[in-house]
Design brief:
Two copies of one chain form a homodimer. Chain A is α/β, with parallel strands linked by helices. A six-stranded parallel beta sheet of chain A has the order 2-1-3-4-5-11, with helices on both faces. In chain A, strands 7-6-8-9-10-12 form a six-stranded mixed beta sheet, with helices on both faces. In chain A, α4 links the parallel β1 and β2. In chain A, α4 runs parallel beside α12, α7 runs parallel beside α8 and α9 packs across α10. The longest helix of chain A has 15 residues. The radius of gyration of chain A is 23 Å and the shape is elongated. Chains A and B meet through α3, α4, β2, α9 and α10 of A and α3, α4, β2, α9 and α10 of B. Chain A binds a DNA duplex (30 and 30 nucleotides) through α1 and α3.
DNA sequence: TTCAAGACTGCAAACAGTTGCACTAAACCT
DNA sequence: AGGTTTAGTGCAACTGTTTGCAGTCTTGAA
């Protein structure tokens, strides 16, 4: 039994001949090590948790897929959960996961740093898109992307730009704001907070029109798409009357008309990296680069 | 120890006083029963697997969320995995899950019935959107919805209608086709198979134009949206030149312009039901109703 | 008072692996 | 040849829970 065990978990400690013998017999019997039993002795479940704000937001699926693939590669399984944008659900889910995963990656959390630091004591943790001491962190440098976006608008000649911001509690949203405010020669009007969805953008259209801006940076592509719809309903067309820049570079932004100018986010890389950090239990802060993708939703003001 | 165990798993077998004593002490110590150890003796992991074709397809998230909620309610956890539309990945994932879940729900599978029946021998199983003997089945009556859709087009005066079908191996796609063919007074042109995505619809636009139809039923809303874009690129507008009906009733179909006429699918109900069937280990076949939602992408032919 | 029944409780053996330690046998030194 | 290392193997204890069975303690009836 111990030899069988070693054949699977420490192959170099067993004679090559014995090993192949064990393996053939195991094959015949269809034997697979039982993970529950293994978890009992080793204390590691080989499961990970991934908590996102909303699976339905197309920003997350690429991240989830990448995380999933990275986990499977290392023989881990991934629980994915969804907080429906409820900060309270984050804590509850971490609690629920804590005893049956080896760690959790928390993506774009909405809770306070305080609350997160408390949770980090219960489970190994990596956070995506939030700066947090005491936990490994993967950041996407959305600030840089936002600056590029506003500079792009400024370069086209826009002098008044609206920032249609995201939900309260979002690190990303405040990063965007800070960066956007620093672009010289542009007057920034902040409109928000808004739900990070098409509905959120749609609902903000009136305020954007009233603000009299000629350019808009939206919290994400979904908001941008909703906003473009909403502006259309108000008789304003994009990019002729208003230029709109999104963030995330989701697939449907590449297909909608007008094709969205947006900031591409390295979501897949972030998901993969987060899982790697978690499994290797390294505590590091990584910042991934973003870039501006210019398409058809921006033009000089008329 | 046994008393502690019973306090948690069979409370009625232990004296009320002892029970409260155990519970208070457990509370003090922050004790929680260890699921791995429990799984070892009981043989039940209290985990379920959910396999979908593509998390990024907005059809699935509501189903996933509902399944997740139903599982959590019964103190189960849910592994979600994604096959990237690869039939082979279905088998592989079921294998990978089999030893650490109590069952898996397989949603809109692309594998053959043969292959699925083979897999059903390894793990308790419920299939969504596929008729399969030997496994519990949750069906959405998409055939009925498709018939309503084509009848709606016929009612508007369309005589030649294209069916932009879905991927090979999809039960849903063949149901749609069978139902659509049965509507009297309409000549049906089948175009496909196509990828069930916006790209798939976009790519089919040329063939739709060449087919000379005035109405289209698309495999799903994503395909419909892509198709509308593609037709637009060819100078055809919807619904003036061509009427388009989608299937699924995803959120972005309600916001895109024109707002999509579509068949609403009971995805959340299906997810919830599938999990319930799995946990209760009942083997049943259920068919859920669909309905037609008429919006702005259909009009009489000109 | 004694017994039987019934309600709790706790011992100990699973469950399926991992791991420290002791043991054997072969190979290597001197 | 005798002693020492080294590689490979197997025993047995341990992980935390469930569960059959036996034991204890009450309680009520005879």
């Amino acid at each position: 039994m111990s030899t069988v065990s070693r054949t699977f978990s420490a192959p170099h400690m067993v004679n090559a001949a014995t090993r192949t013998r064990v393996l053939t017999v195991a094959e015949e019997l269809g034997y697979r090590p039982n993970r529950a039993a293994r978890a009992l002795t080793t204390g590691r479940t080989h499961n990970l948790g991934l908590i996102v704000a909303d699976i339905a937001n197309p920003f997350f699926p690429p991240l989830i897929k990448a995380a999933h693939a990275a986990a499977r590669q290392r023989d881990y399984h991934l629980f994915v959960a969804d907080t429906d944008e409820e900060p309270a659900a984050e804590e509850e889910l971490v609690q629920a996961f804590s005893k049956q995963v080896d760690g959790v990656v928390l993506c774009s959390p909405r809770s306070s740093n305080k609350a997160l630091e408390r949770l980090a004591e219960r489970v190994p943790f990596v956070v995506i898109n939030r700066r947090l001491r005491g936990a490994a962190t993967v950041l996407m440098d959305v600030g840089h992307g936002a600056r590029l976006a506003v500079e792009h608008l400024a370069g086209l000649g826009h002098r008044r730009v609206a920032l249609v911001s995201g939900p309260a509690g979002s690190w990303t949203s405040s990063e965007i704001r800070t960066a956007a405010e620093q672009v010289p020669g542009v007057e920034l009007v902040v409109i928000g907070p808004n739900a990070p969805t098409e509905r959120g953008g749609l609902a903000a259209a009136g305020r954007v029109r009233d603000s009299g801006v000629t350019g808009v940076l939206a919290y994400n592509d979904l908001v941008a798409i909703g906003l473009i719809e909403g502006l259309g309903d108000l008789g304003l067309s994009v990019p002729q009357d208003v230029s709109v820049v999104g963030i995330d570079d989701i697939v449907s932004g590449r297909l909608n008309r007008p094709k969205l100018t947006t900031v591409a986010m390295p979501t897949a890389a972030a998901g993969r990296l987060a899982v790697d950090l978690l499994i290797q239990e390294v505590s590091a802060t990584t910042s991934l680069e973003t870039r501006l993708v210019v398409r058809d939703s921006t033009a000089p003001p008329r």
